[in-house]
From TrEMBL:
This is Dihydroorotase. The gene is pyrC. Residues 12-306 form the Amidohydrolase-related domain. PANTHER family: DIHYDROOROTASE. Its EC number is 3.5.2.3. Binds 2 Zn(2+) ions per subunit.
């Protein structure tokens, strides 16, 4: 018999929508399945002020297909020049849900990010007083640190001291990729939460590197070894409230990924929800999919869960053809080695 599951409409607590033609191409895929999404601010130039976030939100809303009910939740990109008053006013006015900390040079468009946490101490203190969550890209950029260790070292050097200094600050460790990340989040819940991507649940670094290099599986933080994948699968499917859905869907043009110096990011929006369902089914945890996808995130952010429902079922999911983006080229959608689930009504 076909297995199917109906859950409250989920939210995606970590997306990249970009801008312009690419934004118009990708927004409908997220809006089709998700009620809300936390929108990353790493445009060029980055979204650093409440006014820029409000304008960006309008451009996103203009790309939502007629009839879809979808709410983008905006974030500001922290720099060493961020004005705490602007940030907190943006939060109070309902424009900014959170702010994102990119360590400078850690990932795509992070060159405007923060080199020294001490330089944003006042900003963090203001966010703490305002109850505004901090979202972190949790990797150090020290060239001496191996790329596979950068998350664990970030926890020791940056995140643990930051949580001690700002005891009331709510923090999301975005896209955790390691056992150390999952354990650290558990130990500091409920003021610390984490998102987990479909690719880090479905793949480990062998998928990226064995039998040829697969640029469409390259993202940051990079896929880790199998024991970390196992730890993430246990975290996501185990029913703990501190872990929630965040796809990190991150579109890049095909020719920039299939490149001698390919860029980081996996465009997963069209298939992400089906991927999560498959992982939960494989783990015998389908009854906990709704908590991960639709309940834990809203609870962390202090928002009500969505009231609509969405149904997924076991089915051979059709591959998503390359998507043309204006005159620039095309996007390639994440293709896991096997996908045996699909959204059947949204
Ligand atoms: O792989 C990634 N892509 N990781 C990030 O942190 C940023 C993202 C992007 O913007 O492309
Ligand atoms: Zn991201």
């Amino acid at each position: 018999m076909m297995t199917a599951i109906t859950i409250r409409r989920p939210d995606d607590w970590h997306v990249h929508f970009r801008d312009g033609a690419m934004l118009r191409t990708v927004v409908p895929f997220t809006a089709r399945h998700f009620g809300r999404a936390i929108v990353m601010p790493n445009l060029v130039p980055p979204v650093t002020t409440a006014a820029a976030a409000a304008a960006y939100r309008e451009r996103i809303l203009a790309a939502v297909p007629a009839g879809a009910r979808f709410t983008p939740l905006m974030t500001a990109y922290l720099t060493e020049a961020t004005d705490p008053a602007d940030l907190v006013a943006g939060h109070r006015d309902g424009v900014l849900t959170a702010a994102k900390l990119y360590p400078a040079h850690a990932t795509t468009n992070s060159q405007f990010g923060v080199s020294s946490i001490a330089a944003i101490r006042e900003v963090l203190a203001a966010m703490e007083r305002a109850g505004m969550p901090l979202l972190v890209h949790g990797e150090v950029t020290d060239p001496a640190i191996d790329i596979f260790d950068r998350e664990a070292v970030f926890i020791d050097r940056v995140l643990a001291p930051l949580l001690r200094e700002h005891e009331g600050l709510k923090v999301v460790m975005e896209h955790i990729t390691t056992r150390e990340g999952a354990d650290f989040v558990r130990a500091h819940a409920p003021r610390l939460g984490a998102t987990i991507t479909p690719q880090h649940l479905m793949l480990n670094r062998n998928a990226l590197l064995v039998g040829g290099i697969r640029p469409h599986y390259y993202c940051l933080p990079v896929l880790k070894r199998g024991l970390h994948q196992e730890a993430l699968r246990n975290a996501a499917t185990g029913g703990e409230a501190c872990f929630f859905l965040g796809t990190d869907t991150a579109p890049h043009m095909k020719h920039l990924k299939e490149n001698a110096c390919g860029c980081a990011g996996v465009f997963s929006a069209p298939v992400a929800l089906a991927c999560y369902a498959q992982v939960f089914a494989e783990e015998g945890a389908l009854e906990r999919l709704e908590a991960f996808a639709s309940l834990n995130g809203p609870a962390f952010y202090g928002l009500p869960p969505n009231e609509e429902r969405i149904t997924l079922a076991e089915a051979e999911a059709a591959p998503v053809p390359p998507l043309p983006v204006g005159a620039e080229g095309e996007l390639v959608t994440f293709e896991p080695p096997r996908l045996g689930w699909a959204v059947i009504s949204a």
